[in-house]
Fold this sequence. Notes:
By secondary structure, the chain is α+β, with helices and mostly antiparallel strands.
Amino acid sequence: xxxxxxxxxxxxxxxxxxxxxxxxxxxxxxxxxxxxxxxxxxxxxxxxxxxxxxxxxxxxxxxxxxxxxxxxxxxxxxxxxxxxxxxxxxxxxxxxxxxxxxxxxxxxxxxxxxxxxxxxxxxxxxxxxxxxxxxxxxxxxxxxxxxxxxxxxxxxxxxxxxxxxxxxxxxxxxxxxxxxxxxxxxxxxxxxxxxxxxxxxxxxxxxxxxxxxxxxxxxxxxxxxxxxxxxxxxxxxxxxxxxxxxxxxxxxxxxxxxxxxxxxxxxxxxxxxxxxxxxxxxxxxxxxxxxxxxxxxxxxxxxxxxxxxxxxxxxxxxxxxxxxxxxxxxxxxx
Length: 334
């Protein structure tokens, strides 16, 4: 086998799709029309198989231009089935049983790279056992996803760019229930060495009644450089502003160091947020409860003023008190 790691995956992916006989299973939250056209042309050369794209059809991605409705239509016309999970963030390519790639790159020009350049991405070719395991996981996700139809694509294509006043369709599909009690209980039960190797924080945020579990987008933003390190745990606090619940309903783990990236915020949220909170920290959800039933800051003798700067550090003992209070609340179903 050639080198395990892949930095620019475009030509290898297209070549594999063109040789497919059994399946082409792709997962990517972002897709551009030119890449969709290349994949469709390659699939037309293939001998057959099941063609599937798993994506995240949400308004903000379409409005930001990172998920092309034209590209989705091109793949549908090429025979792809398309389904959506709104909190999908994985980038996976599985062709037949003998090739698989997992990496950071989306199905976009910058994500897959090419002669015109692209993002600095890294992927890894999967071993035989890993391909089988990834296929099982993809199949489970597919069963839980909602189908994307031509009518849905047309509705999203009609959206204007970032207009909060325009009536938007809801995201397609339901976020997978990958958190809740088990994640919170597991972090309480971790060994002392693991617990001591983390730092713990409370991060203040605004409640979003239109997106009550927004932390499934897997990133947070700050007005200044976040002090968090990879592996740190952050308790999210929803302030009382605009009728918010003034409680802590979720815990997330830091997966990348904080970076100044207003373009990311602009493409994933809105222009005003990019100006006010331009520092991005990518995260993964550990556990959650219903927003209205989260733990109060008073559990650890703090209040809203304690996080006026955006965040504050807490001890492991304080963190455990907050998590136990969350576990005593009404839990998220599923």
